[in-house]
Amino acid sequence: MPMTVEPPLTLDLEPGPVPPLVAVRQWAARALSDLGEDHLVAVQLIATELLTNAYEHAGGAHQLRLRRDREPCRIVIEVDDGSTVQPAVVREADPRAPGGRGLAIMDKLTGDWGSRPRPGGGKTVWATIDCTSYPWEPCP
Predict the structure, then answer these.
(1) Contacts by residues 30-36 (CB-CB < 8 Å, ≥ 24 positions apart)
(2) Are 8 and 66 spatial neighbours (Cβ–Cβ below 8 Å)?
(3) Rounded to 5 degrees, what are φ and ψ at 126?
(4) For residue range 65-74, what is the model confidence (pLDDT) as tens digits?
(5) How far is residue 29's CA from residue 43's CA, in Å, rounded to a whole number?
(6) Full set of structural domains in the chain with CATH
(7) Is the pLDDT of residue 113 over 70?
(8) How far apart are CA 113 and CA 93, in angstroms?
(9) Rounded to an integer, what distance in angstroms lies between the CA atom of residue 99 and that of residue 95?
């Protein structure tokens, strides 16, 4: 069966000291309201993890994109930032530390993730969530 790819859903982000996590979750919920609940929650979690990492390690994010493939049901989440430093490798988090679990969560929940340089500088960090990989309620 051929893959059906829709145009990306794009959210431009304003610079600031704090990532707009609640706004991103609400935007994703509106934009992907027909996803199964588990798939949507996974997309929201990964989008906020990518965004948090961009703010903590790359000086903020410029844009968030959601790319949707309908057959199979898959969402690709992309976050652009201005840093050329690639994400760190996944490591075991210190259980006493308040952070350091984002990449480990992303690695467990996504089918694939990575980063690529952007023309003109910076990078895009992306992750794919494929609902056929989990026993989730199927997407319509």
Answers:
(1) 31/66, 32/66, 32/68, 32/75, 34/139, 34/140, 35/73, 35/75, 35/131, 35/139, 36/131, 36/136, 36/137, 36/138, 36/139
(2) yes
(3) -135, 160
(4) 999 987 778 8
(5) 9
(6) 9-14+21-133 (3.30.565.10)
(7) yes
(8) 19
(9) 9
Average pLDDT over residues 53-72: 88
Residues 6+ apart with CB under 8 A from 73: 35, 39, 130, 131, 132, 138, 139
Query: Which 3 state secondary structure label does DSSP give 13?
Result: coil
**Which residues share a beta bridge with 65?**
10, 78
Dig out the tokens for 50 from the structure: 């990518």
Report the run of H or E that residue 54 belongs to, with start and end.
Answer: helix 37-57
Do 103 and 46 contact (CB within 8 A), yes or no?
Answer: no
Q: What number of residues does the chain have?
A: 140
C-alpha torsion 75→13→117→106, nearest 10: -40
101 by Cβ neighbours in 10 Å (0-12 / 13-18 / 19+) ranks as middle
